[in-house]
Amino acid sequence: KPRVFSGIQPTSDSFHLGNYLGALRQWVAMQDSTDALYCVVDLHAITVDHDPKVLHERSRVSAAQLLALGLDPERCTLFVQSQVPEHAMLAWILGSETGMGEASRMTQYKDKSAKQERTTVGLFTYPILMAADILLYQTDQVPVGEDQRQHLELSRDLAGRFNTTYGRTFVVPEPYIVKETATIKDLSEPEKKMSKSSASPRGCLYLLDEPNQMRKKIKSAVTDSGGDVRYDTEAKAGVSNLLNIYAALADTTVEKLEGEYAGKGYGDFKGDLADVVAETLAPIAARTKEFLADKAELDRVLTAGAEKARGLAVRTIAKAYKKVGFFPPV
Ligand code: AQP
Question: Where along the chain is L-tryptophan bound (predicted)?
Answer without folding.
Answer: 133
